[in-house]
Amino acid sequence: MRTSASHVADAVVVGGGTVGGWCAYFLRRSGLDRVVLLERRTLGEGASSRAAGVVRTQGGTPWAVQLGEWSRTFYLRQHDELGIDSGFIRQGYVLPCFTAADVAAARERMAMQQSLGLEIRWLEPGQLDALNPTLAPGLTLGGTYCAEDGFITPPRNVTAYAVALAVSGVEVRERVAFTGLVTDSDVVTGVNTSAGPIAAPLVVLTGGPELAQVAGLAGIRVPTGGVRHQVAVTQPHPDLARERVPMVFDLSAGLYWRPEEGGLLFGMSNPDEPPGEAACVDEPYLALMRERLAELVPVTAGLGLRKIWAATIDYTPDHLPIIGPAITGDRTLTGATVASAGGAGMMWGPAVARAAADVALAKTSAVVDVTELGLDRFDAAGNSRLGTDPIALPFPEHAPQPAGRLTLS
């Protein structure tokens, strides 16, 4: 391997999405002199610029709560730290209940969230209707509410971490593909790329919905997949003014919405759709979710759509993030870390990135206890020993099986 100055780094991060971008920044801010970020396309070209931007701390597990809260507070302090921010807007978030089982689960979840310091409160049906006057009255049995939850602007988030990378001195190599790890026994010594090798003792593998393929180039099996996610924005209407519309997640339908440019932004994933790359909008499923939205928010029934898009987003079988050392077979690769936000790149991305940087540097993190979030929680078939996060989009619960194993470079 060549070891000229241009081919040596203290750390290499693979993937220029939200997790990879912020991770490279955090590694540089932690004191590493030379951090290189590899992106085979351009920064944020994937789902990071096409997300809905929801930042929800009302997670279904302690990990989800802690990651959401860390990310939320990071968004709030960005401007002081960077002179730019991701455009976080405090909007408030309601999770309505429609059945007695929903109520029991919500109250148990709320107790867990409050024990972790979140300001979550229960809304009786009348209180929920008063808080959200666009919702058809009398439909719910109440719900939980967090006034601190909000949303960001995804393209602005890409701009924010691009600026952070530039001002901190991270070397960004766009249109350069990762092609494998270089190792000495079980110790990482660098990476191979489409532009030549780079010697480095630390490598963090990200990649969102492409993480399984990226890791597979190094012989590492990561049970993540990609699935279509659709987002649409209605035409404006006075009843949908931002002060009248808290964010809402209808768990029963896997449908969420928030205000956007005087209209309503709503998003969904089809639980019956097999994993795969999103190439177009699923018009029949969009129509089905529009019917559900009109039932809950009647004013939307007469509104056209201003924007519609689809993106491939990542998921894990248990809907939890992956943060931990790379494993190939029964061997742990010293110096290689794997990080996935499990489809919650805007909601958990900065926290996952910070935790991954911490694990790469010190094997532990103050952001969240990563002990159970590594690859070793999955069996050979990709099944997790952890319970599934109950507050997630209806992602598939199995990752696609790889076509074959690749060997280490």
Give structural notes.
- With about 400 residues, this protein is α+β, with helices and mostly antiparallel strands.
- The protein has eight helices and 20 strands.
- The chain has helices at about 20-30, 60-80, 100-115, 125-130, 155-170, 210-215, 285-295, 345-360; strands spanning about 10-15, 35-40, 55, 90, 95, 120-125, 145, 150, 170-175, 180-185, 185-195, 200, 205, 225-235, 245-250, 255-260, 265-270, 305-315, 320-330, 330-340.
- It has an eight-stranded mixed sheet with strand order 6-7-5-15-16-17-14-18, sandwiched between helices. The protein has a six-stranded mixed sheet with strand order 9-2-1-13-20-19. Strands 3-8-4 form a three-stranded antiparallel sheet.
- The longest helix has 21 residues, at about 60-80.
- It is globular and about 65 Å long.
CATH superfamily of the largest domain: FAD/NAD(P)-binding domain
Number of strands: 20
Largest sheet: 8 strands, mixed
First-to-last CA distance: 12 Å
| CATH fold label of the largest domain | FAD/NAD(P)-binding domain
Shape category: globular
| Total helical segments | 8
Query: What is the domain tally?
Result: 2
- Report strand order across the widest sheet: 6-7-5-15-16-17-14-18
Helix-strand topology string = EHEEHEEHEHEEHEEEEEHEEEEHEEEH
Strand content: 25-35%
